[in-house]
# Entry
Amino acid sequence: MNRNLGDVTAYTDLTVTEFKELVQEYRNTDDKVVKSKIEKAIEDFKNQIINSILDKGDRTKLRNLHQQRNELQGGMLLFETKYEREKRKKRLKSLINKLLSEKLD
# Structure
């Protein structure tokens, strides 16, 4: 990677220092609500970093994969059957593998 870290994080909501502080806060808190909010912020930051690193052509494809993954991770449907839940988990696993392979390419 030939890019400056400042260039990569220029369009993110957090600075690297703020990110490190969030990680420390996550490690030091026992409150599940706070941890949940911090996890969301960390995930958003990571997604922003990924999108800023990728080339424009690959960004759209990866963004679509991320969106599909987030929709599947969004939670269990109220009346979801065991079969549907397993199907959703399988699809989620497949999307995660695609994301990882796209990042490595």
The mean pLDDT is 78.
